[in-house]
Structures are given as C-alpha cells and as structure tokens.
Specification:
heterodimer, A: about 450 residues, mainly alpha, three-stranded antiparallel beta sheet, two-stranded antiparallel sheet, about 5% strand, B: about 475 residues, alpha+beta, five-stranded antiparallel beta sheet, 16 helices, about 40% helix, about 10% strand, DNA-binding (chain A), 4Fe-4S (chain A), iron (chain A), DNA_primase_C (chain A)
Chain lengths: ~450, ~475
C-alpha cells in the first residue's frame, strides 16, 4: 500500500511541491510512546482553537489567520519531514480518541475538515491541482464552447457575490451539484440541469467535501476496529493514553453537568430575571406573553431548564401551566408532553439530551414566529438595544456590547452583558479562562452556573 | 366493496332528491372515510409509486424494497402509530381499510424492515437509505403579508401566494437541479406539498437536502428582526433574478398589491416604509402619502400609483447607496417569495402526509396540482369526502367494483396522477434498474470481483493502523 508522502516532486520543473497529507493510511513509522501523547495534545490545541474561533463567528479571513497562527504555534518543526510525521501521527492518534461516540466523531470531523479547508487555501494552485487529482475527482474543465454559452450567467453569479469573473480564460469545473453542497447553499455557483459550474477558487469546496466524507467513514471503521480487536491488544500501551486524552480538559466535555443543583418551578421566575442569559430570558418572556412557543424555542429553553436542574415533573408542570390559556390539559398531554419526556430521555431511543451550546444557538435559523436563536446575532440593532436596557444595562455598557455585536463577537457581547448586569469586574484572565472552558464544553449550562453565582475574584 | 356494505351506506341516506342536501353532512365523517378507503383511495397506484419499479419481474428488482418503507397512521382519537410497513399491496390495502386512519404519513425507506428495527443494535444499522426530496409550504407562514385571512383560512385572494411559490420552486427544481419526476399536492387545507421522486433525489443525504433548502431560502426573519429579506450584491443570482422577472414582479404589481391594498392605509404602508433603510427617503414618501389621502384626479388604483412613486424615488439616479436601489426587489421578495418549512426538507426521516388522504378538518382530498396550470387550481372546489360519497350514491350500485373513482370528481385527479406523474416515473425506474444491472454484469466480467457490500469502505483504507506497522517503541530512557 502506498504511504502518503508529504512532499512530491512536480514533474515539470523538479521543484518540490509540498502538499497536505490526506491521512489515507497510517505510515510505517516508529513512534515513541510519549510522543504519541505529546503530538496529540498539540494537535488538540489547534483543533480547540478552531472550535473557539468558529463559536465566535469569525469571518473566513480571520479564520485563515487563526489557523495559520495555531499551526505555527503548535505543530511546526524545523525539519520538514519531522513536521510531516507529527502531522500524520497526531491525526491518527486523535482518530482513536474521537471515534468512540457520535458526538465526538461529529466534533472531530468538523474541526479536522475546517483545518483541512484553511490549510488547503494556503497551498499554491499547482499544489491544489495535485491534491484534486489525489482525490480522483472526475470533473472535467468546462470546454471553451460551453463556457461561451454560460459566460453571462457565470458573470452574474460572480457579481452577485461582489466579485468579477476572472479573465476570459478562467477555468471552471462542471460537477454534479450534490458534490458541492456548501456552494449550492450559499448560491455561490450557477446551476443548470443538475450541474454546478465551479470556479477554480471554489475548488476548495469540492475537495473539502471529499475529505469530509472520507474521514467520516474512516472514523466509523476505526471505532469498530478499536472496540472489536485493538483495544484489548493495546490495553497496556495505547489504550491508557487514549483514555487519558479523552478526559483531558482540552477535549470537548459532553458529560452530564450536575453542578448547578436543582431548581423548582417557583424559582424560575426569579432566576429568569436575575440570572438567565438574554436568549433564555427572551424565550421565557415570550412564553409568558404568548402562552406558546414554537418547536425551536421549546427545545432551546426546555433543554436549558433541564440543564440547570429542572426535574422532569417540574418541567411538565411548568410548560403545562404556561400553555394553559391556549392549550387544554388533555391536548397538552397529547401533543407536548411526549416531547418533553423525550428530552429527558424517557421516550424513544432514550437519549438524555444536553442543552444547546452557544455555537449551536448562534448558528440556528429562527424563522417566522420563532423566538429562539442568539439575540446578539438575530435581533435587529434596535430590538437588541431595547432588550439590553430592559435588563438594566447602562447606556455606556450597551455601546460596548453593540460594538462587539457589530464585530460578530456574540459570545463576548453576552459576557459583557453579564458583567454589566452583575456590576462585578472580574479578573479578566481568570474570567476569560472560565469562559473559554464553557465555550469548549456543553456551553450554556455551565454558562448559567457562571451567572447564578457571584463571581469570586481570586485572591492575589 | 361488498354489496352489503354499499347497501348499508344507502340505507343511511334518503335517495330522494329533495332531502339530499341534508342527507350527507358536510366535511369529514369517519363512516365516509371507510367508504373512501373502500372504493376510492388508489391503493394500487400508491403501491406502484412507492415500489419504484421493484415490484417487477426483472432479476435486479429488490423484493425487499417496498417492505422497508415506513408508513405511519393517525387513527381516530389521535392515536398515532409509527413504523408501519407492508410487504405487498394487499397488506397495505387491508391495513388501511381495517384501521381507517384519519391521516397516513409516508416516511423513508430504511436499511431494514422498520418493523424489525429492534433486532438491530448499534449506530447506523437501522437508518434511512432513500427518501423523496420533499417541500412543505403553508400559508400561515405568510400571515404577516396577507390581510384577507389569518391562520387556517384561505381564500382566492391569498391562495395565489401558493401558486407563485409552486412556479418558482418547480422551475428551479427542473431547470437548475435537473429533476424530472415532481409531484405537487394540495395539503387539504392551507398549503401545498412537493415530492421530488427522481432516484438522484431519493438518495440525497441530509446535508445535500439542507443545501437545496438553503439555496431556496431568502426570508430570514421574524418579528424580532426588521430586515427580513436581504439581497446583497450588485446583481441577483440568476435563480433569484429569473424568479423575480418571470413570476414575482408581475404577480406583486398586478395582483397582490391592489388585492391586498398594501399601500392604501397608513398602517399598511408603514410596514413597507419600514423596509427602506434610509429614513429620509421613507419620510419623503410618507409625507407625500399623508397629504394625498386619495390620488387626486387619477382613476388608477391608489396602491399602484403609490407603488410607482416609491419605485421612482428608490430607483432614481440620485440614490447613491446600493441598498436603496435593491430595496424595491427586497420588498417584492418579502411579500411574494416562497417561504419553505426548512425542517421538513432537511431530514430524511421526516414524515409527510400521503397524497389522496382526506384532511380531517376540511374533508377535502389531498389532490395533485398541475404545476403547468396551477393558476387554475381552486382550493375551494377541491372534492370533499361527503361530496364524493354522494356522487357514488347517485351513480347507483354497480357490479363492477373497479375504478369507481372514475364516476366521481376524484377521477380527474387520479388520471392526472397516473398519466403525468406515475407512468413516466415508472418507465424511468425500469430503465434505471435495467441499466444498473447491465453495468454491474459488465463490471463483474471485467474485474476480479472482490465482493464489497455497499456499506463497507474501499478495503485499502484503514487496515494497517493497528497491526505492528506502527511500533510504539517504549521510551528507552
């Protein structure tokens, strides 16, 4: 089997064109046991940093710089082939760590794909073309004749994105639209009869989709192999390291948080006013006002309440009472109770659902009649200001918050609001550390823990 | 249907013409539903459709295919049963006739028979493998832009919003995405459903479905945000531009604007003025309109007059900012562009109501709509359950129990379903089955076949990681 080389020579000019590894196979290297863990931890820092950046809604240019900085800080090595080895080994070790559950696989897949995407963008176009052929994508460049016939439409698409069609001999690839879902979703390509016309600079998307689909399948296979044969074989060598990496603070934490204690129905009213983050406060107010919430809102608020300690019976009582003016008790039991019980893991496949993380809430898409989502992202400026004022935020603080919002730092905006409402100035370093930890973990539940207790200032 | 059952039906109602108006109560009735399932519901057609050619004799037909499709029934008293599956048309028909479901939903085709799902443990073993690409458009999502009705009501003034939604989406599905086998269905009360049945569509992943739904999505707001439609960029994407010039603009200016009186009164025109990002432009128009409560000499509809004024102000050469000129399109889009329920389209396991069901609240049958003639579709004249039963009775008893629907108003819909949708679909399925079979034969002749099953990776991928190839050497220190 071929070992993927990290350098390949371009036949035309004998210059080494470095390409990204595609992680198709584990290389036949000898690795020190301690390097196993160290390499993986370094790569994990890169992935965590990426997760952080995405959660803050960073724009692509910012992400590009972030990825470059993270890679430089954690993965560089003076010798190129040592760097390549570290790259490959750390990836495979983390596959072992993150293959075990659906949630872990989803996270790892998402971060590795993002990492790959931005590293691909750094490569020269020659290197990119070489990588494209590695993936054996059978897409042909559009012929001149065909290009002429669709040139207008291609130009229109480019201008709709604020770009211009590259020079007259721009290369376009014709691919089935299913291969480039991101480009389709953003209407960034011209589609005709099932074919998408992809510009050279969009090729990234093609390649990334392939990378992702490949890695997704590989992770499932890894999991099967690990649980069926390897874990037992490696129980004295790899297994303890893999276990340790799983539980290190660097990984995403999907354990059930139980630290906030319990709350009861009568507490909710008071806590909503003093301690809920704005997104939950808004949902809560709307439930009170409308005696109804659509599905997205019920999920977001319901899981949050569960996460902060509301027991199932109390949750049922709460929703039933809130909906009572519009929904009879019988109808409630028929139409809503099942879903609430489902959230608590008492129905269906009995998954005990965790509350939504900030990242998920920020990237949700509330539609007509919905009130979920992140107000810092989804509210108009006017509505957001009004909401902040109602929370008691001073006008100067409101400006700071709005500034963060304009720069798309939604979680920072939320943090600032917290500080303004609680009037406490926390030690910035310690506070940021907590917040980063929260973002990395289940998210909003631990966030709530931050809100509900007075923030101690560590003794100096 | 037995003679006995038909006679029982007859006994309940007076044959005498004069009393007929009172005899068959309006709307929905469980007894009539039984008759409907007995004589009118097209069981065999539904079976053929859902089999996608696999009920044939060709060796490549997958005999298990139909049995792996999930159906769900909602019975009287809101009892809901999921994961129903059937191995033949007879099983399907008997179950429907016996249980008399108030609603039938169709789910995906799973990897294994849904009835046996508990026998399989682990992630990804019981999983959807095929499902039509579906869309659901509901007129209640347009409540903020129609004044004639709210909630579940629908009338001929606002129904055209559904018509233009059909036109926009249908054209894109065919021209942009290349799909051919598309069925539009009236949902029975206040919306439409779309079933895209090409093989390519059925095999789309959730991610690809989400991408298509996002391609169609323009409306992104709710009452908490102001600007609900944003069309950035100096020009529109060809899909949006075509939708605008061919469907939306004409409809808005000729029908919606005057029929809904969108600019005639202050609270109505304020809603539109709110969408203009430049406050001074908005107040210029506001000033003009507040002064002239009636368009003085003109006989033209005041809405059209004011719209022309708005357009000339916003699109005049004076306007420097991009956003202002684009505002006209944004207003038109926000009122008319289709509003899809994203969640319905994104997931393979989403259940959707079957065509030819009867809506329990209105008694209307969920009949197909012809996208090429959707202007003519009138939801208020769709056959109802009671109407159909009455028609059956009027025709009298017949020995020949076949094709009873042909004697009723349902006949037209079923014939349309067969000729324009089902037959072309089945023809194409047959061709697909045959050609993929031939391709496989060819392939196995050409290569030394290693029999790989469909849910395995290419064998090269990963076999080496855990054998001694990686030798983790103990630290020599």
């Amino acid at each position: 089997m071929e070992v993927v080389q990290s350098h390949r020579t371009s036949s035309s000019n004998n210059v080494t064109v470095s390409t990204l590894p595609l992680y198709r196979s584990a290389p036949p290297l000898e690795v020190r046991l301690e390097d196993f863990e160290l390499f993986a931890m370094d790569r994990l820092r890169v992935l965590k940093g990426i997760s952080d950046g995405l959660g803050r809604g960073k724009k692509p240019e910012e992400m590009e710089k972030l990825v470059a900085d993270l890679w430089k800080a954690n993965m560089r090595h003076p010798q190129a082939n040592e760097e390549a080895n570290k790259d490959i080994i750390s990836h495979f070790v983390l596959r072992l760590v993150y293959c075990r559950t659906e949630e872990l696989r989803k996270w790892f897949l998402s971060m590795e794909t993002t990492l790959f995407r931005y590293r691909f963008r750094f490569e020269s176009s020659e290197a990119q073309r070489a990588l494209m052929s590695e993936f054996k994508l059978p897409y042909k460049a559009v012929s001149n004749a065909e290009f002429e016939s669709v040139k207008d439409k291609l130009g229109q698409v480019a201008r709709s994105m604020g770009q211009t069609l590259a020079s007259a001999d721009a290369i376009f690839y014709k691919v089935p639209f299913e291969e480039v879902p991101e480009l389709v979703a953003g209407r960034r390509v011209f589609i005709c009869k099932g074919h998408a016309y992809v510009a050279m600079n969009q090729v990234v998307s093609l390649v990334v989709t392939q990378f992702r689909s490949y890695l997704s399948k590989a992770l499932i296979l890894t999991n099967r192999k690990w649980t069926s044969t390897v874990r037992e074989q490696e129980k004295d060598r790899l297994a303890p390291i893999v276990e340790a990496l799983c539980t290190s603070y660097l990984g995403p934490d999907y354990s059930q948080p139980n630290e906030a204690g319990e709350i009861s129905v009568k507490d909710i009213d008071h806590i909503a006013k003093t301690s809920f983050p704005l997104c939950m406060r808004h949902l809560f107010e709307k439930v009170r006002e409308d005696h109804h919430l659509k599905h997205g809102g019920r999920m977001q608020l319901g899981l949050f309440l569960k996460g902060v300690g509301l027991k199932l019976d109390d949750a049922l009582a709460f929703w039933k009472a809130e909906f009572a003016p519009k929904v009879s008790a019988e109808r409630f039991d028929k139409e809503y109770a099942y879903n609430i019980r489902h959230n608590y893991g008492r129905e269906g496949k009995r998954t005990d659902y965790t509350p939504y993380s900030c990242q998920k809430i920020i990237s949700s898409t509330p539609g007509v009649g919905d009130h979920h989502g992140c107000p810092y992202r989804h509210f108009s400026e006017e509505n957001l200001r009004a909401a902040l004022v109602r929370m008691g935020v001073s006008s100067r603080a409101v400006e700071d918050v709005m500034d963060k919002v304009r720069n798309r730092h939604y979680q920072l905006a939320c943090t600032l609001t917290f500080e303004a409402v609680h009037g406490s100035s926390c030690d910035a370093e310690w506070f940021c550390g907590i917040r980063r930890h929260f973002q990395a973990s289940v998210g909003i539940v631990k966030y709530f823990a931050l809100w509900a207790v007075p923030v101690p200032v560590p003794a100096h | 249907m037995t003679k006995e059952e038909a006679e029982n039906g007859r006994d309940d109602m007076a044959i005498d013409g004069a009393e007929q108006a009172n005899a068959v109560p309006d709307g929905f009735d469980a007894n009539y539903l039984r008759i409907y399932y007995g004589k009118l519901f097209p069981h065999a057609d539904m079976f053929k459709w859902m089999s996608y050619g696999n009920d044939g004799k060709h060796p490549a037909c997958d005999r298990s295919y139909f049995g792996r499709r999930e159906f769900s029934f909602t019975l009287e008293n809101d009892i809901y049963i999921r994961f129903q599956s059937f191995n033949s048309v007879i099983e399907l028909e008997n179950s429907i006739k016996e249980k008399c479901p108030f609603k039938i939903d169709i789910g995906p085709v799973y990897s294994v028979d849904p009835a046996k799902r508990h026998a399989y443990a682990g992630d990804n073993v019981f999983t959807p493998v095929e499902r039509e690409l579906v869309f659901d458009i509901d007129i209640t999502d347009y409540d903020d832009v129609r004044y004639c009705c709210t909630g579940a009501d629908v009338c001929l003034e606002c129904w055209p919003l559904m018509t233009i939604a059909i036109k926009v989406i249908d054209a894109a599905l065919r021209d942009d995405f290349g799909f051919n086998h598309i069925l539009w269905v009236y949902s029975g009360r206040r919306g439409v459903h779309c079933w895209v049945c090409d093989g390519k569509a059925r095999r789309l992943t959730n991610e690809q479905r989400t991408a298509i739904a996002d391609y169609f999505r323009v409306y992104k707001g709710n009452e908490n945000s102001h600007k609900k439609i944003s069309l950035p960029g100096p020009v529109l994407h060809p899909f949006l531009a075509r939708s605008y010039t061919e469907v939306l603009k004409g409809f808005f200016e000729a029908k919606l604007l005057p029929n809904q009186s969108l600019l005639s009164s202050e609270d109505r025109y304020e809603k539109i003025l709110e969408m203009i990002p430049d406050a001074s432009v908005a107040s210029e128009l506001r000033g003009r309109w507040q002064e002239n409560k009636r368009a003085s000499m003109s006989k033209d509809d005041i809405n059209l007059v004011r719209w022309d004024q708005l357009k000339s102000v916003l699109q005049s050469g004076k306007q420097k900012t991009q956003g202002i000129r684009r505002c006209v399109e944004e207003i038109v889009f926000s009122f008319t562009y289709p509003r899809l329920d994203m969640e319905v389209s994104k997931h393979m396991n989403h259940l959707l109501k079957a065509p030819f069901c009867v809506h329990p609240k209105t008694g209307r049958v969920c009949v197909p709509i012809d996208p090429n003639n959707c202007d003519e579709f009138d939801p208020t004249t769709v056959p109802t359950l009671s109407q159909l039963v009455e028609e059956l009775n009027r025709e009298g008893l017949r020995q020949d129990a076949e094709n009873e629907w042909d004697r009723t108003s349902l006949g037209e819909s079923i014939k349309f379903f067969r000729t324009t949708f089902l037959q072309p679909l089945l023809k194409s399925c047959k061709e697909d089955i045959e050609s993929s079979y031939n391709a496989k034969l060819q392939q196995s002749k050409n290569t030394l076949s290693c029999r790989t099953q469909s849910n395995h990776l290419c064998p090269n991928v990963y076999s080496h990681l855990f054998n001694p190839v990686i030798n983790a050497v103990e630290d020599q220190n």
